[in-house]
Amino acid sequence: MAEHFQLKCRECGKLWGNQARSFCEECLSPLEVVYDLEAIRPVFTRKNIEAGPNNLWRYSALLPLPDGYQATLPTGFTPLVQARRLGKKLGASQLYVKNDAVCFPTLSFKDRVVATALAAARRFGFQVVSCSSTGNLANAVAAQAAREGFDAWIFIPADLEPAKITGTQVFGAKLVRIAGNYDQVNRLCSQIAEKFNWGFVNVNLRPYYAEGSKTVGYEIAEQLGWRLPDNIVVPMAGGSLITKIRKAFNELIALGLVEEKKVKFFGAQATGCSPISDAVKRNLDRFEPQKPATIARSLAIGNPADGFYASRAIRDSGGWAEDVSDADIVKGIQLLAEHEGIFTETAGGVTTGVTQKLIQQGYINPSEITVACITGNGLKTIDAISQEYTLTPAIEPRLSVFESFINDRMVAVAGN
Amino acid sequence: MKITVEIPTALRRFTDGVQSIECGSATLPELMSEIESRFPAISKHLRDDAGQVRRFINIYVNEEDIRFLGGDSYKFREGDRVLVVPSIAGGAPSNACG
Fold it and tell me: Which end of chain B has less Cβ packing within 10 Å, N or C?
C-alpha cells in the first residue's frame, strides 16, 4: 500500500518521499510532512479516534508512522482544564489550560515530538538518536531512547538547570555539555549530523518530529467537544509548536471533524529572547536573531528554526505576539500555581504572563474561549522560583509550640 | 587576504565535491559573488530571486552568526573561517562514519 504521507519543500514544493532529511537540496528551505487527506478521510473519524487508546496514538492516522508501527508508550492526552479561578483573576470567562506539565514520561510536550521522531528513527534504521536541546527535549529523547533500545547522544548548553541535566543522565544517555548557548549547540549539531549517521530528532528527523506537536491541537479540539477555541496562546522557542497546532486545526476542519473557525494564534516569548514576538510586533519579514538572556531557558533560542513560519502563522490568523520580563515570568508561574494548582516551569510562566498581558491589552476577547498551552513542569526549574520563598524555623513537635507559632503568624498577617 | 569557506554537503554537488575553498573577498556580498563566479550552478541555491542570501541559510564566521558581526557590512579578517549552514541542516550523509 502506498504511504499516505511524504516530505515536501515548504518553499519550492518539491516532493522528497520519506527519508531522514530536513531541507530541500534545491532551495535549502525546510521540508514538511504532507498527507493525502482524501485517503485518510475514511479512517480519521471522531468514532475511530474515540475508540482509540487514551494517548496521542489515537491520532495515528494523521501522524507520519511506518505501516504497522506498534507504539507502546502512552504519551499525550494530557488534561485540558477549565481555569475558572485564573480566568476570574484575569477577567476571562472561558479560559482553559492545556496541561502538558504532566505529559508522560518526562513532563513536557517534548514527549510528543520524540514519540513520532523515534518511530522515524526506527524506520530509517538508526542505532543512535540525538538532539540539541534546551533541556526538555534532552529528557524526552533520553527516556524514550532507553525504553526503545536506542543509544542516545544529547547536546545541551552547559549552564542548563540541574534538574534537566540529571533528568537526562539518569536514563543512561551520553550528555555533551557545550560551552555556548542553544544556537551554538544547534549549529554544531547541524555539522555533526552531516558527519555521523545518527538520527538527530530535531535536525535530520525534524519533519517527522515536528508532526508530534499536532497532537496538542487534536487533543484540544476533542477535549472541547470537537470544536475549536477562539484564541490560543502558545509559548515559542524554535517556533514549531504554534505552526503545528494550526496545521492540526486546519486538518480537522478539512476532514470535517470540527466546524470551521478562524482561531487567533498568540505567540508568547520572554523579553530576554523574543526574536519572533519582535518580528510580529514590528511586522518584519525576516526576524532578527538575538543573544538570549532570560530565566526561561527552555525558550532561549535566539535564531529560531521556524521563526519565519511562526510569525507568519500568527499574522495570518489575526493574532498577535507578546513577551514578558523575567520578573513577570516568575509572577506568571505563581499566578497559575496559586489559582489552578498547576506548577509550571519558566516557559509556562511566560505563557501565563503573556495571556494576562494580551487580555489586558484587548487582543484577547475575555468572553471567548481561550486556551493557554502549558508545556513544561515547574519541578524542572525550581531554581527560578525558590528565591521567592523563605523557610520558617523548624518548630518542636508540640501542640503548645504550634499554637504560639500560629498566633505569631496571625499577628504578623494582621500587621500587614 | 585569505579566508576559508566551508561548503555544506548539500551544495557540494555544485562545487565538484570540494568541501572548502579559499577566497579573497572583503565582505559577504562580495564573497557570494566570488563563490558564484567560480561555481555558477550554485547561484540559485544560495540566493533568492531578489539576490538576497536565502532566508533559511545561515552564515557563520569563526562560529559566530554573521548577523551579530554586522552582516553584509562585516569586513572579513585574514584567516576567517566561514560556514554556510542551512538553518535546519542535516541531510542523510553520504560519508557517514558513525
Answer: N
A12: contact with B, CB 8 A cutoff: no
List chain A residues with CB under 8 Å of B71. Answer: none
What are the E-state strand segments in A190-306? Answer: 199-200, 231-235, 264-270
Domain A110-209, classified CATH 3.40.50.11240, yes or no: no
Q: State the pLDDT confidence band at A416, using cuts at 50, 70 and 90.
A: low
pTM, two decimals, is 0.95
The percentage of residues in chain A with a pLDDT greater than 90, rounded to a whole number, is 93
Picking from A28, A194, A286, the nearest residue to B45 by CB comes out as: A28
Q: Chain B within 8 Å of A308 (Cβ-Cβ)?
A: yes
Cis peptide bond upstream of A105, omega within 30: yes
Minimal Cβ distance to B98: which of A23, A197, A206: A197
CATH number for the domain whose boundaries are A80-106+213-387:
3.40.50.1100
Nearest CB to A203 within list B9, B68, B90: B90
Is the residue at B98 inside a domain? Answer: no
Residue pair A336/A347 in contact (Cβ under 8 Å)? The answer is: no
Chain A nearest CA to B51, separation (Å): 13
Tell me the CA distances in angstroms from A234 to A8, A213, A351, B92, one per residue in order.
25, 12, 7, 32
Domain that holds residue B32: 3-86
Chain B: residues touching A (Cβ < 8 Å): 8-11, 13, 45, 54-58, 60, 63, 65, 67-68, 83, 85-93, 95-98
Here the CATH number for the domain that contains residue B53 is 3.10.20.30
Domains A80-106+213-387 and A110-209 share a fold: yes
Query: Does a structural domain hold residue B94?
Result: no
Q: Is residue B97 part of a domain?
A: no
> A72: pLDDT confidence band, cut at 50, 70 and 90?
confident
Number of domains into which chain B is organized: 1
What b-and-e string marks burial along A6-27, b requiring 16 or more CB atoms within 10 Å of the CB?
bbbbbbeeeebebbbbbbbbeb
Task: Give the gyration radius of chain B's Cα atoms.
Answer: 13
- Asked if A289's CB is within 8 angstroms of B88's CB, the reply is no
Q: Structural domain boundaries of chain A?
A: 80-106+213-387, 110-209
Q: Report the largest interatomic distance among the alpha carbons of chain B, rounded to a whole angstrom.
A: 39
Q: How far is A160 from chain B (nearest CA, A)?
A: 21
Q: Does residue B92 belong to any structural domain of this protein?
A: no
Q: Provide the grid cell at A18.
A: 520519506
Q: Is any Cβ of chain B less than 8 angstroms from the Cβ of A293?
A: no
Distance from CA of B71 to the nearest CA of A (A): 11
| Beta-carbon-side half-sphere exposure of residue B65 (alpha carbons within 13 Å) | 22
Q: Read off the C-alpha cell for B8.
A: 555544506
